């Protein structure tokens, strides 16, 4: 009988333990992936859907993403500018308006007051921060044809320029959705039914601040709704221009509608109607539903009160 070296036996328990550990780790990774993608029991999520897949955001991230897109739309910038800005903000802040960063860096893009980006208060205004990013981006020759990492780095001067690339796929999906290319493809949880009221003046001011005068809105005295909440909403009517710098009337309508859904919690918007599609906070888990009634040529925003 040929003897077996002791080292073989001593290695077997270690190999077995390593195999078990790997199996546990893989199972944990799979659980986390499924948990995140399905929403699990975590906080409410916004979902953006496009050809490239789904992107999940929390409401804070969704508001900031929609603002970044709106500021680009107001300036007539192409989709590529939006994608570069979103990927940059995902890397720099996770699409959050941070109050601390590397040295004196602040806000969505970790812009620095000491480097001439503005005051701390200005930089922490997402509309201002996005505008300053685009101010610098459009000065980069041929930015829309450059690799995303190169274009972003020409603006940011990051110590880790290649890090922007890992967010490009997410940014492309968000851009395709938020610019209105994909119909009925963006939803958020909406405001809770906590009795807080929506302010039409605040909604109208936010629209004009982010989209410019082209998003000038008006009020409707008539409320819409059903059941016990009938008549409980006032409406802001947002006209849809015949065309925008990027696309036609339909895309512009969805762009404005998605902005309203993204800002629904912040601005207490409980219903958004566009064409024959309706999003409501009460049924936000179902996304957009079709309706027999058309909103006409306007987008109708129903506010809580």
From TrEMBL:
<feature type="transmembrane region" description="Helical">
    <location>
        <begin position="15"/>
        <end position="37"/>
    </location>
</feature>
<protein>
    <submittedName>
        <fullName>Putative secreted protein</fullName>
    </submittedName>
</protein>
<keyword id="KW-0472">Membrane</keyword>
<dbReference type="InterPro" id="IPR058593">
    <property type="entry name" value="ARB_07466-like_C"/>
</dbReference>
<dbReference type="Pfam" id="PF26571">
    <property type="entry name" value="VldE"/>
</dbReference>
<keyword id="KW-0812">Transmembrane</keyword>
<feature type="domain" description="ARB-07466-like C-terminal">
    <location>
        <begin position="244"/>
        <end position="293"/>
    </location>
</feature>
<keyword id="KW-1133">Transmembrane helix</keyword>
<feature type="region of interest" description="Disordered">
    <location>
        <begin position="283"/>
        <end position="305"/>
    </location>
</feature>
């Amino acid at each position: 009988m040929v003897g077996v070296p002791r080292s073989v036996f001593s290695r077997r328990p270690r190999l077995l333990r390593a195999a078990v550990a790997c199996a546990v780790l893989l199972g944990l990774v799979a659980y986390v992936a499924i948990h995140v993608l399905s929403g699990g029991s975590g906080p409410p999520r916004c979902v953006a859907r496009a050809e490239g897949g789904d992107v999940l955001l929390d409401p804070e991230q969704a508001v900031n993403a929609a603002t970044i897109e709106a500021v680009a739309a107001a300036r007539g910038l192409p989709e590529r500018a939006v994608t570069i800005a979103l990927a940059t903000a995902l890397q720099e802040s996770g699409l959050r308006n941070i109050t601390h960063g590397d040295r004196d860096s602040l806000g969505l893009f970790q812009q620095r007051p000491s480097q001439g980006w503005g005051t701390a208060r200005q930089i922490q205004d997402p509309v201002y921060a996005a505008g300053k990013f685009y101010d610098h981006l459009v000065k980069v020759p041929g930015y829309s044809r450059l690799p995303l990492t190169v274009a972003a780095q020409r603006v940011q001067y990051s110590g880790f320029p290649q890090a922007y690339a890992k967010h490009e796929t997410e940014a492309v999906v968000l851009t395709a959705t938020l610019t209105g290319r994909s119909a009925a493809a963006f939803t958020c949880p909406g405001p809770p039914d906590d009795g807080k009221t929506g302010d039409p003046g605040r909604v109208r001011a936010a629209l004009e601040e982010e989209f410019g005068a082209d998003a000038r809105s008006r009020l409707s005295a008539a409320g819409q709704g059903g059941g016990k909440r009938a008549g409980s909403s006032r409406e802001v009517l947002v006209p849809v221009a015949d065309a925008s710098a990027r696309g036609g009337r339909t895309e512009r309508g969805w762009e404005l509608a998605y902005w309203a859904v993204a800002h629904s919690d912040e601005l207490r918007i409980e219903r958004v109607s566009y064409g024959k599609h309706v999003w409501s906070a009460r049924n936000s888990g179902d996304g957009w539903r079709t309706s027999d009634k058309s909103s006409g040529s306007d987008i109708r925003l129903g506010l809580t009160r």
